[in-house]
Amino acid sequence: MLGALSLRGARPRDDGPVVEMTRAEFEDAVRDALDLIPDELADQMDNVVVLVEDDAPADDPDLLGLYEGVALTERDGWWAAGSLPDRITIYRNPTLAVCATADEVVSEVAVTVVHEVAHHFGIDDERLHELGWS
Fold first, then answer.
1. What letter would DSSP give residue 90?
2. pTM listed for this prediction
3. Distance (Å, whole) CA 33 – CA 35
């Protein structure tokens, strides 16, 4: 199952420079966003790794985040033995390109992380939008 967050229709800003944020600062924002996940949910995350990449895949350069794996709701008994971890990837440069300030980056990273973690729990885009996570 794949889940992605892309700001379709959102264009890289052309009203000034892209927000400057080092990779370490961006990774801190991702770490802080993960810390916002309630312990009850974080404890249930299973066999998932969260990564930061600078650039999104060439075929979807505006992608902010991507979940690749098998949602917890779709796993059965055979799945766990020897399975590679699910991957949540947060893309730094596309995120910086659509934000005007460092505070906006932190906020956008939090939304993207929540969005991709929700996919790990089997929540699809339609339901996320119903819940106000667009």
1. E
2. 0.83
3. 5
